[in-house]
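Table S4 entry, Condensation domain-containing protein.
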Amino acid sequence: MRLAGLDTWRPAPGRLVRIAPTPASAAAAAAAPVHAGPPSYLQADHLRAYAALAARGGTHRAWTGVATTLDGPLEAAALCRALERFLARHEGMRTWFDLGGVPDGGAPVRHLVPAADVALEAQPLEGPAGDGSAGDEEWQDAVHRLLVDLFTETCRPDAWPGFALVVVEGPDSFGLVWACDHAFTDAASQIMLAAELGALYEAEAGRGADPAPEPPEPAAPSEPVGSFLAHVAAERAAGEEYDAGSPEVAGWVSSVAAHGGLLPRFPLDLGLAPGETAPVRLRSADLLTGAEVEALDRVCAAAGARTTGGVFAALGATERALTGVDDQLLLTVLGTRRGEHVTAQGWYCTFGPVDFSLAGLDGFGAAAAAAQAGFERAKRLGRAPVPLVLETLVRSGTTPAESLGSPQLVSFLDLRWFPGVGTPGHDRGLHFTGEGRTGNASMWVNRDAERLHVVAQTPDTAEAAAAVTRYFEVLREVLVAATHDRLLEPAGARHDR
């Protein structure tokens, strides 16, 4: 599984087909009963932002998805059944929100589509002219534009479905691309989706069609998974136990106060004025490969840290190399999946501050240990509801309200431990995000069996292109030094070796 822009997915040419609800199913979904459960904290923020953007007439592209390739000719009916099974397993994917009262301060109202009302069909899509043969970039670009337009129209939180599934049908294989509004999903969900949907499809497609020795039974998911709606209820109940005086909230405030009262920003100039945004451009780079990644693991382990600590230490050391600042504050995405929810679909995330110092440390292992301790603390502080934290930061005078928008987020995922690794759906997969607008450069660092890779969601400006390229170069330099347990020094303190 790789992470990059949707425009980097170049499917083999073929007929375009959409898997979508039947008219009767769409009508039933529009009349779906109200579910009393509230949105999660992150969903509530997302829904308010969506409602405000819609009121301004803006374009909503807060969707994320996955593309992959499956073997064999397409059996469209089997794919419809597979997606129906998928939706029956994950009830959060069968919800939509009535936002009619939100602009006036009201709460979103969740509707839950009964699994029995979900019926899907294959609908031909009119594809671009041309045959998409090798070198036909116009065809590929036109397919990309078609997908972006479809996802932008369909992937929204106030109607069902809030997702879209398109197939590019070839004679011996087919490309499959899925996108979903962020209200109903997260990166881990999308990464797992390719393998799960692929397994369900194999189970529905008449396995054993080859008359030569019978293949083993496909491992189609059948065990129950946790309900995202139940998770939201538990999250809300747990959140009631916190207030502005809770140790977790106080820890947040002390960390932010120690770093000037501001949430993290990308350390280099992105070519934007304060508060300004620009269209998103995804930029990516391989950081370490093969034996280099294994060497980083060994350095971290010898210091009592995990690769997670090594990644955050490297990010902090990169910022120090560029700015000379020892004390680091990173804002990270934290997964909240536990137990039966590990393979569930939904937005299972919160945030936490990774606060550590590189001052006086000797060697990268020491930095990894410091960052690992900062990350473990971030997980504890991340138990506090994010809205309460932000409110407390402002009310305490720690952080100006106008500075809270669009902080820089960093995330690390070790893809080696995801279910489905080794299956075609996962290993051929591309995870992408919608490309709306941003004023920052959030980053996702990912580890798989072969490499350590980074993707940044950056403003599409000349200054951002130069800044992120420079950042990636220094991050790579930091990590190469780390494989030898060396901690790269700040620019002003470096000398020839």
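The chain has a mean pLDDT of 92.
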